[in-house]
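Take a specimen:
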Amino acid sequence: MPRARQQRVELLQGTLDLLILRTLQWGPQHGHGISVAIRSSSQDVLQIDHGSLYPALHRLERQGWVNAEWKTTENKQRAKYYRLTAAGRRQVQTERDRWTRLTEAIARVLDPA
């Protein structure tokens, strides 16, 4: 197995939602841009494939946390741009709180007192 593949990190269910919502706090973005931003800010550890990203974006849109509109990219291609809604901005904090509780619980299991 190639070393890069071995070092890929599988995301826990729900983590992708948090990453997408957090990325959209920086401003509207199309799907590929979201993927690039996550990969870049994680120093290439997190690589989101389109087969996971777009279903998550559609789910977030159905939940009312993002909305989308078609625009032309800087490369003159049509792309759907996603933007956080007010509910989405509130959800970022909810998801961050949930993530903190989860990581603290895992830390307690890995390193009991």
